[in-house]
Write a structure and sequence with these properties.
globular, two-stranded antiparallel sheet, 17 helices
Length: 448
């Protein structure tokens, strides 16, 4: 998760007054009748009744708050959902601008077809696209018009053709980031906590803060969670996921004081995910952690907040996995073209065990980066990290040493995964591993 530094006191006094006074007086309680996933199938959620008698989600009786992000930040979120940065879209624009005029005419628009192999670019389709993209109606498409259209109408699939051309899909419906808004009382809570005054920072070697605040990060994670089909209580947990402690160890609130207050105001199930997320996040690099431990049973991880161990119930693990992927995806540098970096940062191997229990959106993002990592090996990842630490002049921390051992031959867990993928998964011999091929391989043998 991103770490943060504050230029304020985080509005804790105001937050305490808010939580103690209960500004949710206009709220009513909606009982969730179906909500915990016992396991996500490849295409849908399998839901079972809720596990507790107090798992209410607080929603406002008033209209939701729209425009929850600035236009710039909404575009940041849209890029994550599209899997393409502004820079990548600009590169495509320059490829289409065959005469170098700085704009695209209707003839040059034909060149877009190679990026969308699943679409047929008839004259009618081309004319329709021209009308949609050329918003000022001057008969030409400039770079900004192209970007504004692409980021909400196209979606990367992470692959490229034999000539290296990026392959994409056309959305069935235009993406509208935050179209449903956020409950105004949740927005009020964010405001009272002062997260808009907290400058977002990161410690992950391939992430960026993008000049954002913690508010921007929280809201973006909420919106991505909703877009990926998570239930509302999980999206709300994403909205406050780093409240108890951030990646740099800084705590916005005293969790021992705020746990009962947030349980009352957000619901016990929302607060439980917030509480568990930090420990789950810190375990992500380990073979026994949230991403790599065999699925189907409860798992035990170190309790970062209170010491000792804490149990992650098997019913909640799919949601915590999604929260981990979303937290990382919102901060990831999309236009990294280094296959070694891409293979590790969204490590297909690291997520191999839990891929079947993710939401479709999370799964697609992992598979996209596996494609972007084509040609790289686990040995390459190990060599890169070891050189990175060597250049810093620092010893490799114990946690990282355990993580890197997973990439180390002959007994590294990811070495086992890579061997099984190469030997068993590509059944049709097309050089790519699709989801059906992937789930046919038993990777748990590598993590037992």
């Amino acid at each position: 998760m991103g770490s943060s530094s504050s230029s304020s006191t985080l509005g804790l006094a105001a937050a305490a007054a808010f939580l103690a006074g209960g500004s949710f007086t206009d709220a009513f309680t909606t009982q969730t009748t179906q909500f915990l996933s016992s396991k996500r199938s490849n295409n849908s959620f399998s839901v079972v009744p809720s596990l507790s008698s107090n798992h209410n989600i607080r929603v406002a009786a008033s209209t939701t708050s729209l425009n929850v992000l600035s236009k710039e930040q909404a575009l940041h979120t849209a890029e994550r959902l599209a899997g393409m940065s502004r820079g990548e879209i600009q590169h495509i624009f320059e490829d289409l601008d065959a005469d170098g005029s700085g704009s695209i005419d209707i003839a040059e628009l034909d060149l877009l077809a190679k990026y969308f192999p699943g679409e047929t670019f008839t004259p009618e389709v081309r004319a329709k696209l021209m009308k949609e993209i050329d918003t000022d109606g001057n008969g030409e498409i400039d770079a900004e018009e192209f970007y504004q259209w692409m980021v909400v109408n196209a979606k990367s699939d992470g692959s490229a053709d034999s000539k290296g051309t990026k392959q994409m899909q056309m959305r069935q419906e235009r993406l509208e980031v935050g179209k449903d808004g956020i409950d105004p009382h949740l927005m009020e809570l964010l405001d009272e906590l002062g997260v808009g005054a907290v400058v977002q920072k990161v410690t992950h070697p391939l992430h960026s803060a993008f000049g954002r605040t913690l508010y921007d990060h929280f809201v973006s994670c909420y919106l991505i969670s909703k877009e990926w089909g998570n239930p509302e209580f999980v999206a709300v947990a994403n909205l406050f996921h780093a409240l108890y402690q951030r990646g740099d160890g800084m705590r916005a609130v005293d969790f021992t004081e705020y746990r009962p207050k947030l349980q009352e105001k957000l619901g016990r199930d929302v607060e439980q995910l917030i509480y568990l997320f930090l420990s789950a996040h810190k375990s992500a690099l380990l073979a026994t952690g949230i991403l790599m431990a065999p699925v189907g049973d409860d798992i035990e991880v170190s309790n970062v907040l209170e010491g000792g161990m804490v149990t992650i119930p098997k019913e909640l693990r799919p949601y915590l996995v999604d929260m981990e992927v979303i937290n990382s995806h919102d901060q990831h540098v999309l236009e990294n073209s280094n296959p070694v970096h891409n293979l590790w940062s969204w490590s297909f191997y690291q997520h191999a065990t839990v891929l079947p229990i993710m939401s479709n959106g999370a799964r697609e993002s992992i598979i996209e980066y596996q494609k972007r990592g084509a040609g790289a090996t686990v040995a390459d990842v190990l060599a890169w990290h070891e050189s990175r630490f060597a250049e810093s002049g620092k010893e490799i921390p114990e946690l990282w040493q355990k993580h890197l051992d997973l990439f180390r031959a002959p007994n590294g867990k990811f070495v086992c995964v890579e061997e099984n993928l190469n030997r068993l998964a590509d059944k049709d011999g097309n050089g790519e591993i699709d989801l059906d091929e992937f789930v046919s391989v038993d990777f748990e043998q590598c993590f037992v």
